[in-house]
Design goal:
By secondary structure, the chain is of the alpha+beta class. The protein contains three helices and six strands; from the N terminus they run H-H-E-E-H-E-E-E-E.
Length: 127
C-alpha cells in the first residue's frame, strides 16, 4: 500500500514535469521499466520510450501549460487521480482544455504503470 506522502510527491512531480516541460522530472517518478499509456493507445515502456513520447508530446507540441489537481484516491498499490489542465497546442493551433483521470500502479515509490483517460475541448489560440 502506498502512503499519502508518496501519492502527494508523485502527483506534485507529475504536475511540475508537465508545467515545466521537464522530461528528467517525469522520468524520476517512473520505474525504469514502467509504462505510460493514453487510454487504449500505444503503451510506452521504459524510460527511453517514455522520454521520447514526453519530449514530442509535451515539450515540442505544447506550451502555456496549466494544471489543477481535483482529487486523488489510494487503493492498495493504486493511485487514481483526477485533474484539469489546459495548454496551447502548437500542432492544432488551439487552446486545449482537458479533464483527465489517471490510474497508476505504484511499486517501490515509483509509477509502474500509468493509464490516462480524458475528454478535451478546443478553443482558438488567443493572441
Amino acid at each position: 500500500m502506498i502512503t499519502d506522502e508518496v501519492a502527494k510527491m508523485i502527483l506534485k512531480s507529475y504536475e511540475e514535469a508537465w508545467v515545466e516541460q521537464d522530461t528528467r522530472k517525469i522520468l524520476s517518478i517512473f520505474a525504469e521499466n514502467g509504462s505510460y499509456q493514453e487510454g487504449l493507445r500505444e503503451k510506452f515502456i521504459g524510460h527511453d520510450e517514455i522520454a521520447k513520447y514526453w519530449d514530442k508530446k509535451v515539450c515540442e507540441e505544447q506550451s502555456n501549460i496549466e494544471f489543477d489537481l481535483v482529487s486523488y484516491h489510494i487503493s492498495g498499490d493504486f493511485l487514481i487521480a483526477e485533474w484539469k489542465a489546459s495548454f496551447d497546442s502548437d500542432i492544432e493551433k488551439a487552446r486545449i482544455t482537458v479533464e483527465e483521470v489517471a490510474i497508476m500502479r505504484i511499486e517501490d515509490g515509483k509509477i509502474k504503470t500509468l493509464k490516462e483517460y480524458w475528454r478535451s475541448k478546443k478553443a482558438p489560440h488567443k493572441p
